[in-house]
Amino acid sequence: MLAQSGQTSRKIRIVSFDPDIGQQLSRLCAQQRFDVCTINAEEESGEAAGHPRADLVVVCCAMANSRVLNLCRQLRAEDADSRTSLVVVSADGHENNMIAALEAGADDYVTTPFSERELLARINSLLRRCGPPDDGSILRFADIELDKAAVRVSRGETAIHLGPTEYRLLRHFLEHPHWVLSRDKLCRAIRDDEREVDLRSVDVHILRLRKALNGGGLTNHIHTIRSLGYCLGDIA
């Protein structure tokens, strides 16, 4: 085995446009005792970029077409600090498509058929570069980061100070990126044992959260979905 015991908690997400390659990669990573999540991109194309952060994302496909390139850009945009490594594994060995995938955000490009030992060596090399395993205490979206252990929020290099309700609200958004969340769901997510939160006040807390996050004209990532609620990022 090439994976070391210290890597057993490494999270690898496989986004499969090609079931055959996806199954092979899933088996290979599971043998290395990685924490593997496999997504069928044909069935969940809109949700492929909205899953919890992984240490490494592998996009496998027959061809590096526009859908694959767009997904690479979306995955990279959501991980603005580049802590997640991204690999494309494809049967398409055309030089122009390889370059396009790398320019779209991929860290490596592997063509099939591939040597399993070589692929694992590349995966382990990328995992070493991305730092220690994520213990799940950090939630991120674009340049927004919430540290659950330290109860700290930042945007880029700037610390963001939130009230308790706005903090719980942001945490719920970060745990459900690209989901349309109704006011009722948000109300239930942010209420505590000491105080009830009614539906009308959700809009007030959203306003306060946006004001805290978007100071200085920064991009607003919390969108109002008319008649439905709110969504962090684009709708899945």
Give an account of the 3D structure:
With 236 residues, the chain is an alpha/beta fold. A 5-stranded parallel sheet has the order 2-1-3-4-5, with helices on both faces. The longest helix has 15 residues. The N terminus is likely disordered.
Key terms:
five-stranded parallel beta sheet; 12 strands; four-stranded antiparallel beta sheet; alpha/beta; 7 helices; disordered N terminus; elongated; 236 residues
Order of helices and strands: EHEEHEHEHEEEEHEHHEE
**Number of helices, where a helix is a run of at least 4 consecutive DSSP H or I residues:** 7
Q: Indicate the proportion of strand residues.
A: 15-25%
Please give the number of β-strands.
12
**Which regions are unreliable across 5 or more consecutive residues at pLDDT < 50?**
1-8
Order the strands across the largest sheet as they lie in space: 2-1-3-4-5
Share of residues in helices: 25-40%
Structural class: alpha/beta
Radius of gyration: 19 Å
What's the story with the biggest beta sheet?
A: 5 strands, parallel
Q: Overall 3D geometry?
A: elongated
Q: Cα distance, first to last residue? A: 37 Å
Mean pLDDT: 83
Helices and strands in order:
Blueprint: E1 11-16, H1 19-31, E2 35-40, E3 56-61, H2 66-78, E4 85-90, H3 95-103, E5 108-111, H4 116-129, E6 138-141, E7 144-147, E8 152-155, E9 158-160, H5 164-175, E10 180-181, H6 183-190, H7 199-213, E11 222-225, E12 229-232
Parallel strand pairs: 1-2, 1-3, 3-4, 4-5
Antiparallel strand pairs: 6-7, 7-8, 8-9, 10-12, 11-12
